[in-house]
């Protein structure tokens, strides 16, 4: 956990001033977007147990290039003193998604333009020092480690998916998810203390959420599920 007391600083007037927390700022900036992400599009349908296997497969098909790009970009920055702090191969999801798609017997599913846009945004975030990748890793990986665990149970029940088709939500290299999440938050925070451009990263987190919402809505349209 982040220790709020230890992270306090004292300013020249002797007042206690908490240094800007990148993590808290990203959470604050994306709070309302998180509610929208849960309540709209295909994600909302799946959460309500109203999805279909076909719709879920299409979601996975479209998330695959998103994770492939995110993971390739993070790997490129693995040795970087800042972005490298948040590179954790045990979070990688692309192999698991590909395996789930194979289990679902899903082939020839279309990639939506919204996916291409999302992939482009991640590539762009990976430019330069790759600091904006923090926002994309935050959005997807903390999401998978949190809401993903809830979704997994719902999908198993409502779509009658076997565990072999739900490896997206399994992190075999992570023994204790809550503890890992705390450690990952600390790493994000530490990376934040080593960069100047918090505003860019905070806005990128909002963009990442918006890209997820737009994709989720487009997938709902594409699968003809009711809104
Ligand atoms: C499917 C419906 C969803 C549910 C039920 C859900 C649920 C949750 C819950 C309970 C937490 C708090 C976990 C904790 O603090 O330990 C959380 C955090 C989070 N979720 Fe979701 N979520 C959903 C969808 C999403 C989506 C679509 C995204 C983005 C793509 C997302 C991104 C995040 C992030 C980044 C956090 C971490 C917030 C922070 O601690 O700063 N979630 N979610």
Summarize the structure in short.
The chain has helices spanning 22-39, 41-47, 53-76, 94-103, 113-125, 133-145, 147-158, 177-193, 198-223; strands at 9-10, 16-17. It is built from nine helices and two strands, in the order ββααααααααα. Helix 3 runs antiparallel to helix 4 (94-103), helix 5 runs antiparallel to helix 9 and helix 6 runs antiparallel to helix 8.
Description:
The chain has 227 residues and is mainly α. It has a single domain, classed as Up-down Bundle (Heme Oxygenase, Chain A), CATH 1.20.910. Helices cover 62% and strands 2% of the residues. The protein has nine helices and two strands. Helix 1 runs parallel beside helix 9, helix 3 packs antiparallel against helix 9 and helix 6 packs antiparallel against helix 8. The site of protoporphyrin IX containing FE has 18 residues, from helix 1, helix 2, helix 6, helix 7 and helix 9.
Please describe the structure with a list of short key phrases separated by commas or semicolons.
227 residues; Heme Oxygenase, Chain A; 62% helix; globular
